[in-house]
Amino acid sequence: MDVLQLIANGMMAGGVLAVPAIGLAAMYSVLRFPNFAIASHATAGAFAGWIANASLGLPVLPSLIVALLAGGAIGLLTDEFVLRPFRRAGFITTAIGSLALTIGLENVVRLVFGNEMRGYDLPLARDVVLAGIHIGPQQLQNVMVSVVVMALVFGFLSFTRMGKAMRAVADNPPLADIKGIDARMVARIVSFMGMGLAGLGGMLIGLDSSIDPLTGFRVMLPIFAAAVVGGLGSIPGAVAGALVVGVAEELSLLALPPSYKSTVAFLAIILILAVRPRGIFGREAY
Amino acid sequence: MKRRTFLSGAAGLAVGLALPYLARAQGGPLKLGVLTPLTGAGAQDGPRMLKAMQAVVDEVNKAGGVLGRQIALIVEDDQTNPEAAVRAAQKLVGVDGVPVIMGTWASAVTSAVAPVCWDSKTCLMTVSGADSITQLPHQGYIFRTQPTTTLQATKHAEYIVSTGAKKVAYLAVQTPFAVTMKDIMTAVLEKNGSSIVRGVVYEPAKASYRSEIDSVLAAKPDMIYLNSYSPDLTVLLKDLFRAGYTGGRFTQSYAYNAKTAESLPAEVTDGLVAVQPSSDVDSNAYALLQKRLGVASPDSYEAQATDWVSLTLLAIEKSKKTSGADIRDAVRSISQGSGARVASAVEGLKLLREGKDVNYDGASGNCDFNEKGDIIDCRFRYSLAKGAKFELIKIV
C-alpha cells in the first residue's frame, strides 16, 4: 500500500480532529478537568450546522459558523448550570459529571432529531490527484477551515487581553486572581470557545460522512488520544497529537488488519503515558 | 371454639387473603419481553419491529387475549450493544419473568444474549443472520426467522455471478458473520468462474475509510460487495464515489434503507444493488400486516416481528401454559404440520380454542423451523437504487 497516500489520508483526518482536540485542551488548561461532554457538544454543533445548511439552505461556511456558535452557546450554558456546581467537589466528580452530561445531551439530540442519519446538502466532488496522491476537495476545504480556526485561536490567545488572561489563569490561578483577573469570566469564555470548537469539529467530521446522535461519541477516543499525546492542556500539543494519531491510525494498516484501527489511539495513550506522561509538548497552555 | 372450626376458619382466612394475589397472578397481563435496538446502528429497524409486535398484541387483546389474559409487552433497548443488551435481558428474565425475548437484531447482540435466555429457559426470537447463533448449545430456545448466513451468502453469490462480475471485492464491517460469509461466497463464486480478489474486514463507526477503499481498488474489482451497517455504508459509498469507482456495488437492505438513501446524493447511490430476505409479499399474512400497520410495503423486519409474537401467542394457547419451555415445545406444533393454515394470531387462537390444529404461515415466510431453530426456506428481494427510490429488480 502506498505509504504517502496513507500519510496524506492521516493528515486529513488529523487536521479535522485537531479542532475539537484544541477545544478539549483549552478547557483542560483553564478548568483543570477532562470534559467528556465534548462528544455531545460536537454532535449538537453538527446538528445545528445541519439545520442551517439543509433546512435553512445556508452555504457550508456560514453553517460552520452556526455550528461553532451553537456548540459554544450550549457549552456556556451547560458549564454554567451543570458542570460549575460540580467543580467544588473536585476533578473526578466534575469529569464524571461531564460524562453524565454528554449522555444526557446526546439523548436530547436523539429526542429532537431522532436516530436517523442525515447528510449535509453539499455536492460531492471526485478526488483530485496530486503527484500520485488522491485527495478530496471537501477534505482539503475542511483542513483549510481547521488551519484558519487554529490561527484564529492562537491569535486570540497571543494578542488579545482575554486570551492573555486565559493563559494567566491556566498558568497560575492564584496569581491571576491576585492580579484581578475574573476567573469566572475566563471560565465562561473558555467553555464557549472549547465547546464551540467541538461543535465546529463535529460538523467538519459530518461533512465528510453523515451525522447522527452518535457522531461526537464515535470520535471521542481519537480526540482524547490527540489531547493526551500532545500533552493534556497544551494547544499546539493538541494539534500535533491529532496529526500523530491520524497518521498513526492510517499507517497501522501496513501492519494490522483495518479492524484494529482504534487500537492505535489506545496504544498511543498508553505509550505516551508510560514514556512521556507530559505529552509531546508538555502541559504548557500555549 | 373447637379446634376444627378454628383450623377451617384459619384456612379460609388464609385463602381469602391470598385470593386477590392469586386472581392477579391469573388475570394480570401476560408479560412478553421485547429487546430490540431503539438506539445504535439498529435503531432504524428496532422501533418499527416494536410497532409491528405491539400492533399484533393490540389486535389479540381486543379479541380477548390468550388463555383469557391480556398481553403486555415489556420493552427494553438493546442499544445495538452486546453489553447493554445482556443487562437488559437479565432484567427481562430476572425482574419481569418473561418467557420469551423477541427482537434482537445485531448478531453480536444475539450471541451475547442467547446464554442468558437458555440458562433461564426463555425463548429468543431474532433476525440476526450469523450461522454461529443457532450452533450455540441453546437447547431449542432460539427461533430465527432470518435466513442463515450460509443461505444468504449462497444466494447473494449466485446473484453476483448472474450479473457477469468476475473480480469481486469483499468489504465487510467486523461482525460475527463477516468471515463466514466471505468463505461461502468464495466457494460459490469460484465454482462459477468468478473470484474474490480482495477481502477487507474493517472497524465500524469511522469517519473515513479512504485507506481501506484504496486497498480494495488496488485489486481492480468489477463488483464490490459491501457487507456493512448504515453509518459505515454512507461513508464507504461517498469514499467510493470520490475515488472515482464506477463498477458494481452490492449491499444489504438493512444497511441501505430509505433513511440512508435520503441522506446521500443520488449520484453516489445510483446503481447500487440492495438485497434483503423478502417477506412473503403474496401471502395473506402480509396483506393483513399491510392493513394492521397502515403501510404500503412493510419490510422483512416488520414481517418477522409480526411472526414472532404470533408464533409465541399461538404456542401459549396450544400448550395452555406460559413458561419458556412450554412455548419452545409448542412452536413447531403450530408453525408447521397438517393443521389448518392461518395467517394471523387472532385467527389461529380462535381455531385453537375450538380444539383444532393450526399451521401458521407468516408474513415473513411460512415459518417452518428445522431442528436447530432456523427457518427452512426464504425468498430474496433485489432492488436497484435510483435517486432516493428503489426499483425492484426481482424476487427469487
From TrEMBL, chain A:
<feature type="transmembrane region" description="Helical">
    <location>
        <begin position="260"/>
        <end position="281"/>
    </location>
</feature>
<keyword id="KW-0813">Transport</keyword>
<feature type="transmembrane region" description="Helical">
    <location>
        <begin position="6"/>
        <end position="26"/>
    </location>
</feature>
<keyword id="KW-0812">Transmembrane</keyword>
<feature type="transmembrane region" description="Helical">
    <location>
        <begin position="89"/>
        <end position="113"/>
    </location>
</feature>
<feature type="transmembrane region" description="Helical">
    <location>
        <begin position="219"/>
        <end position="248"/>
    </location>
</feature>
<feature type="transmembrane region" description="Helical">
    <location>
        <begin position="140"/>
        <end position="159"/>
    </location>
</feature>
<protein>
    <submittedName>
        <fullName>Branched-chain amino acid ABC transporter permease</fullName>
    </submittedName>
</protein>
<dbReference type="InterPro" id="IPR052157">
    <property type="entry name" value="BCAA_transport_permease"/>
</dbReference>
<feature type="transmembrane region" description="Helical">
    <location>
        <begin position="58"/>
        <end position="77"/>
    </location>
</feature>
<dbReference type="InterPro" id="IPR001851">
    <property type="entry name" value="ABC_transp_permease"/>
</dbReference>
<dbReference type="Pfam" id="PF02653">
    <property type="entry name" value="BPD_transp_2"/>
</dbReference>
<keyword id="KW-1003">Cell membrane</keyword>
<comment type="similarity">
    <text>Belongs to the binding-protein-dependent transport system permease family. LivHM subfamily.</text>
</comment>
<keyword id="KW-1133">Transmembrane helix</keyword>
<keyword id="KW-0472">Membrane</keyword>
<feature type="transmembrane region" description="Helical">
    <location>
        <begin position="185"/>
        <end position="207"/>
    </location>
</feature>
<feature type="transmembrane region" description="Helical">
    <location>
        <begin position="33"/>
        <end position="52"/>
    </location>
</feature>
<keyword id="KW-0029">Amino-acid transport</keyword>
From TrEMBL, chain B:
<protein>
    <submittedName>
        <fullName>Amino acid ABC transporter substrate-binding protein</fullName>
    </submittedName>
</protein>
<keyword id="KW-0813">Transport</keyword>
<dbReference type="InterPro" id="IPR028081">
    <property type="entry name" value="Leu-bd"/>
</dbReference>
<feature type="domain" description="Leucine-binding protein">
    <location>
        <begin position="29"/>
        <end position="335"/>
    </location>
</feature>
<dbReference type="InterPro" id="IPR028082">
    <property type="entry name" value="Peripla_BP_I"/>
</dbReference>
<dbReference type="Pfam" id="PF13458">
    <property type="entry name" value="Peripla_BP_6"/>
</dbReference>
<comment type="similarity">
    <text>Belongs to the leucine-binding protein family.</text>
</comment>
<dbReference type="InterPro" id="IPR006311">
    <property type="entry name" value="TAT_signal"/>
</dbReference>
<dbReference type="InterPro" id="IPR051010">
    <property type="entry name" value="BCAA_transport"/>
</dbReference>
<keyword id="KW-0029">Amino-acid transport</keyword>
<keyword id="KW-0732">Signal</keyword>
<dbReference type="InterPro" id="IPR000709">
    <property type="entry name" value="Leu_Ile_Val-bd"/>
</dbReference>
